[in-house]
Write a structure and sequence with these properties.
heterodimer; A: 2 domains; two-stranded antiparallel sheet; 9 helices; 2% strand; B: alpha/beta; Rossmann fold; five-stranded parallel β-sheet; 7 helices; 22% strand
């Protein structure tokens, strides 16, 4: 692979700075967030590079588990952060953590032990990049699904209570909101799947090809990853939507919007 | 049939106790903000509340909530619709005669909810609830947006339902003329009096 120097990266960062200025001149109000996101991305990836070299070198499952745990916690935090209405007592973080961990870990362990079968199966070189790809997409979907659900529950309170008053169960009353939430959550994944190979060349495959892998082999890996991503986002969203719907009602199936608070 | 004892929910000025018999119609009045809607929502178990409510001897808390609400049904002043067309809100299509009795047509069922007037919505919401044949009706100003003629039709329809099904009806209304029209068939209570009765 052709080596990139840190100077190359520094030169490229000028592009982002110029874009920031351009956006600012055009009245974009979130320049600070944009700048901060770029700084964060650079720092996080550099750290991850150092960290992964160490984990690869150490070949100990504890390190792999630790990196995984940090990634899961960060994903749960990001899910909660993007909510317009959050559940009280850190509920959104817990829902996010549970739904994203359950599906992505299950799929990860499954694919490592049954399909790829590296030795040992938890080998960091496979486990961590795969987990990262699953988390990135699931995080977006779960975040969108939860946000749609809670926003709609607040805005469509009268429609929910009207159904409860007619003797519908909490689950039946939420059906129309659940449909909307799943739809919103799955659209980015469906778009990604539809665009793959024609409009976009997925990052992982591109990376492998750049590193000199056989394109036919890279494509197979990519297809596997796409199936995994589609499954983990869908399952994760279903679990999150189910847990959140449950929390919105008390034991007598009364809507309790006091469970939600507007994010600052 | 419906026994209410010491029911109170935050926002109500006090607690109330009363009983409704089969086929009884009660017109309930009370100043704005005195807690009429809150009381009705508590009776339908849509709000957390203190006190005890029984239907034919069965304790509210012992009956699954959806089942209870299907029998003790709350009809809101502001109707809400969660699907696009009217008929999607009905499991059993109301009869033409029922529609005609309150000034509606069969074709109204195919209409989009967005095109309905608030008076049409109120009448359709009444039929939407009555399709489940509730035994207690809690009507929260359901004739507030109707013209005189249609109001009379709705009054007659509710009265008829109350008598033929032997249902109990608690009807909140600010319309004094309505209280007078129904005075022969109904008892007229005021919520403020109910609060005081309970204190005594």
């Amino acid at each position: 692979m052709i080596h990139l120097s840190y100077w190359d990266l520094a030169t490229l960062s000028v592009l982002v700075v110029l874009l920031g200025v351009l956006l600012w001149l055009n009245g974009f109000t979130h320049v600070k967030q944009f700048a901060w996101a770029n700084v964060r991305m650079t720092a996080q990836l550099l750290l991850m590079g150092v960290w992964l070299s160490w984990v690869f070198y150490a070949e100990n499952w504890i390190w792999v588990a630790l990196v995984g745990a940090v990634m899961l916690a960060a994903a749960a935090y990001e899910i909660a952060k993007r909510q317009h209405y959050r559940f009280v007592k850190g509920g959104s973080v817990w829902i996010g953590l549970f739904s994203i961990s359950l599906t992505s870990l299950l799929l990860l362990v499954g694919v490592l032990t049954i399909v790829i079968e590296p030795t040992p199966w938890y080998q960091a070189q496979y486990a961590i990049p795969l987990l990262g790809m699953l988390l990135g997409n699931s995080m977006t979907a779960i975040g969108l699904g939860l946000d749609t659900l809670t926003r709609n529950a607040v805005q469509l309170r009268a429609q929910l209570e009207a159904q409860l008053a007619l003797g519908k169960t909490a689950k039946e009353s939420m059906a129309f909101i659940r449909e909307q939430s799943l739809h919103t959550a799955m659209i980015p994944v469906i778009n990604m799947l539809a665009a793959a190979g024609i409009i976009s060349l997925p990052g992982m495959m591109t990376g492998q090809i750049l590193a000199g892998a056989d394109p036919a082999e890279a494509v197979k890996y990519q297809i596997m990853v796409m199936f995994l991503i589609a499954t983990s986002t869908g399952l994760g969203t279903l679990i999150a939507v189910y847990l959140a719907s449950k929390r919105l009602f008390d034991e007598r199936e009364r809507l309790q919007l006091a469970q939600l608070q507007k994010s600052a | 049939m419906l026994q209410v004892s010491q029911v109170h929910t935050p926002g109500m000025r006090g607690s109330v106790s009363f009983a409704l018999q089969r086929g009884e119609l009660v017109m309930l009045s009370g100043r704005s903000g005195s807690g009429k809607s809150l009381l009705m929502k508590a009776l339908a178990d849509l709000l957390p509340h203190d006190g005890e409510v029984r239907l034919n001897g069965d304790l509210q808390t012992a009956v699954p909530a959806p089942l209870w609400r299907r029998q003790v049904m709350y009809f809101a002043a502001e109707t809400a619709w969660w699907r696009d067309t009217v008929d999607e809100h009905f499991e059993t299509v109301p009869e033409e005669a029922a529609l005609a009795a309150i000034g509606l047509k069969g074709a109204d069922l195919q209409r989009s909810v967005a095109t309905l007037s608030s008076g049409e919505k109120q009448r359709l919401a009444l039929l939407r609830g009555l399709q489940y044949a509730p035994s207690v009706l809690l009507l929260d100003e359901i004739s507030a947006n109707l013209d005189h003629h249609t109001t009379l039709q709705v009054e007659r329809y509710v009265l008829d339902y109350c008598q033929t099904r032997q249902a109990a009806v608690l009807w909140v209304s600010h319309d004094l003329a309505q209280h007078q029209r129904l005075v022969d068939a109904a008892h007229c209570w005021s919520l403020d009096a109910l609060y005081e009765e309970n204190l005594a």
